[in-house]
């Protein structure tokens, strides 16, 4: 018996969205994509992805709509623009990091008659390209059979954390994870900055950590990037600043003090003001020095 696969619309084809669309197409899904910068969607045509010129065009006939945009307001703007082409009862999967904006998105989904699934992903450029994202999903049981093959095509693992996407359970988990990512990033950057200023060989620091309980693939990747001066963007400083801000805003709402994350947000802001906003978040390293 042949199972008919859903038609998928991908709104947003940036660092994460483009490989998501490409991997879905490679896995046999019919994919329709849109991006604010048309050339980014057009670049996916060689991978069998239909490049739409407007959100409403992209979602026309789609069973599943994925939004992979920078923040909550941009996600909502794209979905509102897509509204004329939306099919009532279609599944809307939001993959973005949106923080407390999840409430507004869920309200719009209800108004538009869409099945809402909150499913932010953990991972940056390389995991996305290798289809090794980790999907954190909250949504109704009725949608899971449709979505699991899709999540398997873009990620290495799916963790279902709730049955009601409108409660923001998955987005809240993503904020917790981003708190840890920020701490790791600034820990590496500040350690290497201090080594430089003290005249300590940074390789000695890396050698001590390597292979021990403080080691990780993330430590190795970010320290290597800083030592090589290679800030090719896997996840930008500006996006990292936005994510830190969302953590701080959520923490303030619930009465949790996030001193380290607040300081980290300021470091990302400072690095951006120094001209590193579009570079990889490892470039937060430069916040340790006067411009």
Q: What would you say this structure looks like, in words?
A:
By secondary structure, the protein is of the alpha/beta class. It has two domains: 7-167, NAD(P)-binding Rossmann-like Domain (Rossmann fold, 3-Layer(aba) Sandwich); 172-288, N-(1-d-carboxylethyl)-l-norvaline Dehydrogenase, domain 2 (Orthogonal Bundle), CATH 1.10.1040. Helix content is 51%, strand content 14%. The protein has twelve helices and nine strands. The chain has helices at residues 17-26, 38-42, 55-59, 72-82, 102-112, 125-129, 141-154, 169-198, 202-209, 217-228, 237-254, 259-276; strands spanning 7-11, 30-34, 50-51, 64-67, 91-94, 115-118, 121-122, 133-138, 155-162. The chain is globular. The mean pLDDT is 97.
Shape: globular
What fold name goes in the CATH topology slot of the largest domain?
Rossmann fold
User: Beta-strand level of the residues, as a percent range?
Assistant: 5-15%
Number of distinct helices: 12
Could you estimate the helical fraction of the residues in percent? 40-55%
What key attributes describe this structure?
Rossmann fold, 3-stranded mixed beta sheet, 291 residues, 6-stranded parallel beta sheet, N-(1-d-carboxylethyl)-l-norvaline Dehydrogenase, domain 2, 2 domains, alpha/beta
């Amino acid at each position: 018996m042949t199972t008919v696969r859903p038609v998928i619309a991908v709104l947003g084809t940036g660092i994460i969205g483009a490989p998501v669309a490409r991997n879905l197409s490679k896995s046999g899904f019919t994919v329709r994509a849109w991006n604010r910068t048309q050339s980014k969607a057009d670049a996916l045509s060689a991978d069998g992805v239909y490049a739409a010129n407007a959100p409403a065009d992209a979602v026309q006939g789609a069973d599943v709509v994925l939004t992979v945009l920078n923040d909550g307001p941009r996600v909502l703007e794209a979905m509102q623009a897509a509204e004329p082409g939306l099919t009532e009862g279609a599944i809307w999967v939001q993959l973005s990091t949106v923080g407390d904006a999840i409430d507004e998105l869920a309200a719009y989904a209800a108004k538009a008659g869409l099945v809402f699934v909150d499913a932010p992903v953990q991972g940056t450029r390389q995991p996305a390209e290798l289809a090794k994202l980790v999907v954190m999903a909250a949504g109704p049981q009725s949608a899971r059979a449709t979505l699991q093959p899709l999540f398997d095509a873009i990620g290495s693992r799916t963790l279902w954390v709730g049955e009601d996407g409108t409660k923001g359970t998955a987005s809240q988990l993503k904020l917790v994870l981003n708190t840890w990512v920020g701490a790791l990033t600034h820990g590496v950057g500040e350690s290497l900055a201090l080594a430089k200023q003290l005249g300590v060989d940074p390789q000695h620091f890396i050698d001590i950590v390597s292979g021990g309980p403080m080691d990780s693939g993330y430590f190795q990747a970010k320290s290597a990037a800083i030592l090589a001066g290679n800030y090719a963007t896997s996840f930008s400083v500006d996006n990292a600043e936005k994510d830190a801000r969302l953590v701080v805003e959520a923490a303030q709402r619930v009465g949790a003090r996030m001193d380290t994350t607040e300081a980290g947000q300021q470091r990302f802001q400072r690095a951006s003001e120094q001209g590193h906003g579009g570079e990889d978040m490892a470039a937060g390293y430069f916040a340790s020095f006067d411009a």
